[in-house]
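$ run holo --ligand "MU-OXO-diiron" --emit C-alpha cells
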Amino acid sequence: MTDSKEKHLWECSVCGCLIEDIEAPYICPLCENENVFFIKQEKEEKMKFQEIKNNIFYCGLNDYGRKIFDELIPLEHGTSYNSYLVKGSEKTAIIDTMYPPMTEKYLKNLADNNVENVDYIVANHGEQDHSGSIPALLEKYPNAVVLTNSKVAENIKSMLLVPEEKIRVIADGEEVSLGDKTLKFILAPGVHWPDTMFTYIKEDNVICTCDFLGAHYTFDDVFAVECKELELSAKRYYAEIMMPFRMLSKKYTQMIKDMNVDMILPSHGPVHNIPDYILDLYTDWTSDAPKNLVVMPYVSMYQSTTEMIDYLSEKLEAKGIKTFKFDIVDDDLGDLAMSLVDAATIVLGTSMVLAGPHPASVNVAYLASVLRPKAKFASLVGSYGWGGKLFDLIAQLLAPLKLDLVEPLQVKGKPKEDDFKKLDEMAESIFEKHKSIGLV
Ligand code: FEO
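-- output --
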C-alpha cells in the first residue's frame, strides 16, 4: 500500500461531518456548502457498542492504524477485533474478546455501556487477537467462567495463564442456556486453527464464526455494505488465512449455507446481515476450478527476467489467457496472495544470485507452497550471469503443490532469438494445459 492511496478522515468545517477519502473534497456532500475547508482527522482505534439483534451487541474495536497482520500481509484498511455481548434473560455472555494492547479501551467500553455482570466468556479460538483480554475480563468479572473446547483451553492456559478452574470445557454440539437464549457450540477445527469453533445463538439464528468469513476491514456501521473494497479485503484475508485450509473452508461454507442463518458475526470485519454475500464469495474462492489466469511473480536484477516475463505475458494474453505480473520486490504480497486464489498456472521468474535463485523468489515460492492455492500448472523462467542452479530450490519448494510443470527456461544474460522461440513454446504449452481443463 502506498501513502498516496491511503484514505483519511476529513471533517467539514461547517457541519462537522466526517468523510473518508484519499483527498479532501471540494464541496461538502452533506451540507453542500462550497465555502468550507476540511480538517484532516487522525484515525485512532475506535470502540463501538451497537445492538445487532435483540440483546446481542457488538462491543469490538476498529484498529485503523494496523498496517500488517502476522507480520506478513499488508492491510489496506486496518482491521477490527470483534467482540459480542449476548444478554439472556438470566445470564450474560461475551463471545470472543480483544487484542491485548486494546484491553484497557475494551474494558472501558464495557463499563461505559453499563455492562456490570458477565457470566460466561466464550472463547471460540485461542489466538490472542480474540482471547487476549480473557485474563483482564476474569479480573473485572470474577464470577465469569470461560466456556470453550479442550484445544482452546490448553492454548489459553499456556499462552495467557488462564487458571484451569476458570474454564468449563464444552463438547461439540453442547448447549448452554442464558435463559431466553441458547448458545450452541460447533467445533470447526481447521478454519483456521485446530482449536477453532463457532457459537450459534439458536433463538436469534445467528452464528459467530470467529476468524472464518472475516475480513481485515474497518467500518462505521457494523453491518456489511456490499462493495468492491470489502470484497477485496475479504479475499485478501481468505487468501492468507483460509486458503491453506480450502477443503475445510468449503465444508463449513456449505454447512453455514445449509443452516440458513440470519446473520454471520465474524471476529474481524463487518457483520453479515445478508449472509449469502460472503457465503457466495467463499463458494467461488473455495471451488476446485481455477480461472483462466496465469500468475507471474518475478524478480529481476538486470531486466532480463523482466523481459522474459513481459514477452510471455504478451503471448499468453494474445491467446486469451489473463496474466497477472507481480514484481516481488515492489508489489504488495497481499495482491499476489489474492491472485493465487484463482490462478490455474504460476510462472515464477528469477535472477540468479551467487549460485542460486534470488532470495526474494525463494520467499515467494515458499509462501505459495504454504498458501496451497488450487493452481494446476507451473513453469519457471530466469537469467544467470556466470552459473549455478537457478531452479532446483524453487522446484523443491513448490513440490508440495503437485503442479504439472511446463518445461522451464533458463537463459544466460539477455534472452535471444532462440529463447523467445522457447517462450513461444511455453505459451503454447500453457494454452494447451488450460484447454485440457476447459479454461479456453
Ligand atoms: Fe484473528 Fe486466528 O485470529
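-- notes --
The domain at 293-436 is CATH 3.40.50.360 (Rossmann fold).
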